[in-house]
Design brief:
The complex is a heterodimer of chains A (128) and B (361).
Chain A lengths: L7 H24 L2 H31 L5 H32 L19 H4 L4
Chain B lengths: L2 H34 L10 E7 L2 E6 L11 E4 L17 H7 L4 E6 L11 H20 L4 E6 L1 H12 L5 E7 L9 H6 L7 H8 L4 H9 L5 H11 L4 H15 L6 H13 L2 H4 L3 E2 L2 E2 L9 E6 L7 H4 L1 H5 L5 E6 L10 H5 L1 H10 L4
């Protein structure tokens, strides 16, 4: 195999790596300036405002087209999440009831947990 | 270069060309496969959902060992990212490692806050979500003591929790790459410069801070790295292991969560602008949260090449906590490779196990 200094593929990879480092370092220096912060936040602020206005406009358009808006879809998703949450609560309660009754043969929820008696290797010899 | 080395290089040329041609063919085949297939399944260590409340999710991972340590672990994930970074795939899962080493593991993970959760404040996270999960861990495990592990901003939340509830039940605290001095997060400081960044206007207009904004701010820390990553992916697309790893980390890195508006406002004003955690003036819901009040054993793992939380931002944690039993470990790697991937398997995980096992009985 050719040594790395002669290998064009290794040279290419090395060059890419160096370019990455150089560009990141240069960009980080540029981004440390207050001017950068000013420009980015002006643009970001304007974008956030424009997005909000566009969202409101789209909402009106969708209502006029008799289509569900994003807010309505989000609201439906929230109701689904709430139902999911309640199902999880019921599952957790069932889990608890199973654990309390310790019924045998019930799969994981009713299975006994391992004892909490483990000792660190130095205190109890070899680690299990 | 001497004559024999040059001759050897010339002799290698046909072999090298052949290898590159084979790789080029493989790239074309694998490139199509890459586009047509989904990535590996992540976060698949068996677990049960103990509790879900809005953005908050509490999981319990099913124990693997026959005998476990007395003190259960509650992992508090960063609010910007998903918890599966700690449970990638079998053999590369921190959770699986802990289970195999005999720990009982719970995780407080986050999902995207809903629009109406924009009003969640720092106190909801520190005085409600974490204590609620700790209570549920106590109830589920039957143990009073709990070890808390916080990753990145999950570490900040854990510090705030530990400084307010300093009389228990937290028995040990482990933080990964946790910032304390926010002045030293130079680029984030500049992005949120109070002269130009109107956080009130942003939060009032968007509600929850969109994930794209969070992701862009992370990407801007290393603006060339995403493009270079894609070049490296193309070069290595013939290599299944490389592609698998790339897909896992890329999926996680781009799976950023939105942040609840009020919570983001508090992070910006109290931490980024006023640096209250470092100054010891932080309060949450009217309760003083000075990390000097933390007295439990604490381990802080930091990464040598962390571009998100630079060492200067993290180094004060150990100096400032009031614990007598405290240790900082600096390991090779970056913000993510510290906790996940080949480096973490070799370095952080065994270190953490040797520190924690002594304190988990």
């Amino acid at each position: 195999m050719a040594d790395k200094s002669n290998d064009p593929v290794a040279m290419w990879q090395n060059m890419i790596g160096e370019m990455e480092k150089g560009f990141n370092s240069f960009a980080n220096k540029a981004m440390e300036s207050p001017e950068f912060s000013k420009v980015v936040n002006q643009v970001g602020g304007a974008t956030a405002g424009a997005q909000k206005q566009l969202g409101e406009l789209m909402e009106k358009y969708l209502v006029s087209m008799n289509l569900p808006s994003r807010a309505q879809m989000v609201s439906m998703a929230e109701r689904l999440q709430s139902i999911e949450g309640q199902l999880n609560e019921i599952k957790a309660l069932l889990h608890q009831v199973h654990s309390n009754s310790a019924a045998p043969g019930g799969g994981y929820p009713a299975a006994p947990r391992p004892p909490r008696t483990r000792r660190p290797p130095s205190a109890g010899g070899e680690q299990k | 270069m001497n004559a024999s080395a040059a001759a050897l290089d010339l002799a290698d040329i046909p072999e090298r060309i052949q290898s590159e041609v084979q790789r080029a063919i493989q790239r074309s085949i694998k490139g199509v496969e890459y586009i047509a297939s989904s990535g590996p399944a992540l976060g698949s260590t068996p677990k049960d959902i103990l509790h879900v409340r809005g953005t908050m999710n509490l999981y319990h991972y099913r124990p693997i060992a026959d005998e476990i340590y007395r003190v259960p672990i509650l992992i508090v994930m960063a609010t910007t990212n998903r918890g599966y970074i700690l449970d990638m795939v079998p053999g590369q899962s921190f959770i699986e490692f802990l289970l195999k080493r005999g720990y009982d593991v719970y995780m407080l993970d986050w999902t995207a806050p809903r629009p109406e959760e924009k009003s969640l404040r720092m106190e909801d996270y520190v005085l409600d979500f974490i204590p609620d999960c700790v209570r549920r861990v106590q109830q589920d495990s039957g143990e009073t003591d709990v070890t808390v592990i916080g990753y990145c901003f999950g570490g900040v939340l854990s510090l705030l929790y530990g400084s307010i509830f300093n009389d228990g039940p937290m028995k040990n605290l482990i933080c990964f790459t946790t910032p304390v001095d926010f002045r030293e997060m130079k680029l984030f400081q500049n992005f949120s410069d109070r002269r130009y960044f109107d956080v009130d206007r942003l939060v009032d207009s968007v509600g929850n801070v969109p994930p794209e904004m969070i992701l862009s701010s992370f990407d801007m820390l290393r603006p060339a790295s995403r493009v270079v990553g894609q070049i490296q992916l193309w070069e290595n697309i013939w290599n299944d292991e490389f592609v698998k790893s790339y897909r896992m980390f890329d999926r996680w890195a781009t799976d950023t969560l939105p942040l609840a508006g009020e919570y983001f406002r508090s992070i910006t004003k109290d931490l980024m602008w006023d640096n209250k955690l470092f100054n010891g003036t932080m309060s949450v819901g009217g309760r003083a949260a000075d990390i000097a009040n933390i007295k439990v054993p604490i381990l802080h793992a930091v990464a040598e090449h962390d571009h998100i939380v630079p060492y200067d931002a993290a180094k004060h944690l150990i100096q400032k906590v009031g614990s007598a039993d405290k240790q900082e470990v600096m390991l090779k790697g970056g913000h993510v490779s510290l906790v996940a991937g080949a480096n973490a398997i070799k370095r952080l995980w065994p270190k953490l196990d040797s520190w924690l096992c002594e304190r988990s009985t």
